Amino acid sequence: MDDEQAWSPAKSAELYQINGWGTPYFRVSDKGHVEVVPFREEGGATFDLYDLVLDLEARGLDLPLLIRFSDVLADRIRHINECFAKAIQEYEYDGKYRGVFPVKVNQQRHVIDEVVEHGKPWRVGLEAGSKPELLIALSATRDPGDFIVCNGYKDRAYIETALLAQLFDKTVIVILERIEELDFALEAAEKTGVRPTLGVRSKLTSRGVGRWNTSAGDRAKFGLSADEIVRVVDALAERDMLDCLQLLHFHIGSQISSIIPIKNALREATNIYVELARMGAKMGYLDVGGGLAVDYDGSQTDFHASMNYTEQEYAYDVVSTIKDACEKASIPTPTIVSESGRGISAHQSVLVFEIVGESEIGAFGPPAKPSPDDHRILAELYETYQNIRPKNLQESLHDAQQGKDEATSLFNFGYFSLRQRAQTERLYWKCIEKILETAERGRRIPEEVLALRDAAASIYYGNFSVFQSAPDIWAIGQLFPLMPIHRLDEQPTERATIADLTCDSDGKIDRFIDVEDVKHALEVHPLKEGERYFLGLFLNGAYQEILGDLHNLFGDTNAVHVRMEDEGYMVSAVIKGDSVQEVLTYVEHEPQRMVERVRRQAERAMRQGLITVENVKLLMSHYEDSLRGYTYLTGD
Q1: What are phi and psi of 357, to 5 degrees?
Q2: Domain C-terminal end among 454, 478, 499
């Protein structure tokens, strides 16, 4: 390879598209490591992610390790608020902006506390979608003027709690999402003597795009139809409580990758807002819901894992549409509320895990030339292998596939031995390897041959659980950026899918971000004897932690909060991952009782002469140490 073709960190950055999805928080350094950039300012301090992982391991934190960057979370909050501030200034909007963080996106206490802390300059509030989340919101928002929006399915206790919280020095708004909740609110108001502050969620006809497009429309899970909204207005007016209705809310889905559905929804919602004000409601808030997308693949398109707009364009469209509608109707402009949980929290964390092994697809060693006594299929396959040329790749592929199929058929009918079948498969995979090697040197690769690259990809085994740390990969086909965090100054010459530690065949990652659509194998480096290899799963700070399950009893990973200080970084919080005995108690096993049961069996086996005292001691030591240990591999 000459100097012009030599691999470089810049080529790795291009290959893994980090300059797209990672900007401005992640980049590849000249050293060939992933670098974390906590602040947007030029020349600011950075973290070397690989060195940070080694340092955290030296502190006793085993992989897999979830690293949350507090400064990135702070910057996301600042950035979104400044985008709205800029839009409000440029459009001379008379109202204000109040962002709220939906607790359901990441309920971890340290995350919620940091959202509240970093959001203080902009008075960022919280959105609760259930009774437990309301309890979190009430505890976490402790300053005068704090803001809570109450969504989700509500019973009487939920609404009574919210109404009583209105007596605190904060703003708590109960949003009616089902018509039945109006009666609950009226009963709670009478019982507590608190005049409620209410909102209504509208079922818009405008819909989002992608997986969550049914969040709006007639069949949406939550929200009131136009008829039901009018019924709410009439019921409140009859009780001289129309001034209690102050907010309109809509939500057309999460991860809305195109700006067009957002614009359509805004036009419809602003008209409803105007009509409510004309009907006498004391409107003061317009909650545009969530949906602000994250560019997971860096393509800046309307692909479901991307977004074809910026946060600033989003803010411009929201502010300008609401202003135009209110000016046209000669009504005051409302406080704009948004619930951009994904946009706030996705970037702030990365899961780092180690590759602990691999399984190669194919054959080892050079192809063996068949003897004259071997079956003709072996001779034909060997001849196919010898004659592979750039001009006959497709023909050679078909010949190799035919030979393999014939051998499988003969084996199934008992005419081929296991050894003969093994020889056939070895020759077949050698043909595939040579076809791919020859194709790489050519200019035009047939589609059939191109598809072989995925079939021939290795399997790299990672010390993590998809179901625990990235369940959306399994559940909804979510794409997350995944790449090595070091060796990026070397060319990745292998292709692999990533399998986790669970025994479930769905515990794998075989869909990766690509420049166009999706690729089914990731470019990786060959594993080196005695050297460790780390991958990072990025932009997973929204939803993944709370959706994770205990498949195969792999529990929560170790997690740390890292923030930049004047003299380097500081670990501001360490959250130890689950031990084996902790996850066993989740499924109602009693660790001490388990120890005693195994000890009794060991004693019985020892009395029968089946096991020695030394081995009993070793067994019980391993058993008890395992109960106290991490649920993942630790290298011990």
Answers
A1: 180, 175
A2: 454
The SS3 of residue 332 is coil
Give whole-number Cα distances, 564 to 36, 95, 568, in Å.
11, 35, 6
Same domain, 337 and 435: no
Q: Which two tokens stand for residue 54?
A: 């080694």
pLDDT at 45: 80
Q: At how many degrees (to 10) do helices 376-386 and 393-412 cross?
A: 160
Whether residue 331 is found in the same domain as residue 387: no
319 and 440 fall within a common domain: no
Report the distance separating Cα 580 and Cα 549, nearest Å.
14
The predicted pLDDT at position 295 comes to 97
Looking at the structure, do residues 340 and 390 belong to the same domain, yes or no? no
H-run or E-run covering 82: helix 70-90
Euclidean distance between CA atoms 482 and 484, whole angstroms: 7
Do residue 386 and residue 338 come from a single domain? no
If asked whether residues 333 and 210 sit together in one domain, one would say: yes
Q: Would you tell me how many other CB atoms lie within 10 Å of the CB of residue 456?
A: 17
Residue 420: partners with Cβ closer than 8 Å, 6 or more residues away: 374, 375, 378, 407, 411
pLDDT tens for residues 193-207? 999 999 999 999 876
Asked if 275 contacts 314 with a C-beta cutoff of 8 angstroms, the reply is no
Domain termination residue (choose one: 431, 454, 477):
454
Same domain (yes/no): 447, 588: no
Structure-model confidence comparison of residues 447 and 586, the more confident one: 586
In a domain, 366, yes or no: no
CA distance 340 to 551: 30
Using 50, 70 and 90 to split pLDDT, how confident is the model at 546? confident
Are 338 and 386 in the same domain? no
Distance CA(591)–CA(8), nearest Å, equals 51
Number of domains within the chain: 3
CA pair distance 362, 383, nearest whole angstrom: 18
Q: Confirm whether 611 is domain-assigned.
A: yes
What are the C-alpha distances in Å from 513 to residues 256, 321, 456, 517, 627?
Answer: 18, 34, 19, 7, 38
Nearest-CA neighbor of 71 among 573, 568, 563? Answer: 563
- Whether residue 612 lies inside any domain: the answer is yes
Q: Name the residue among 70, 571, 615, 605 with its Cα closest to residue 345.
A: 70
Q: Inform me whether the pLDDT recorded for 1 exceeds 50.
A: no
What's the pLDDT tens digit per position in 245-297?
A: 999 999 998 999 999 999 999 999 999 999 999 999 999 999 999 999 999 99
Q: Which amino acid is at 522?
A: L
CA separation for the pair 510, 519 (Å, rounded) = 8
3-state SS, residue 303: coil
Reference 165, options 128, 118, 202; nearest CA is 128
Q: How far apart are CA 457 and CA 136, in angstroms?
A: 46
Cα–Cα distances in Å, from 505 out to 292, 394, 518, 551? 33, 31, 20, 12
465 assigned to some structural domain: no
Q: Residue 209 pLDDT > 70, yes or no?
A: no
Give the mean pLDDT of the chain: 92
Strands (E), 315-415: 335-338, 349-359
Indicate whether 219 pLDDT > 60: no
pLDDT at position 2 is 44
Here the tokens at position 563 are 């923030």
Q: Which domain covers residue 159, as residue numbers?
A: 92-345
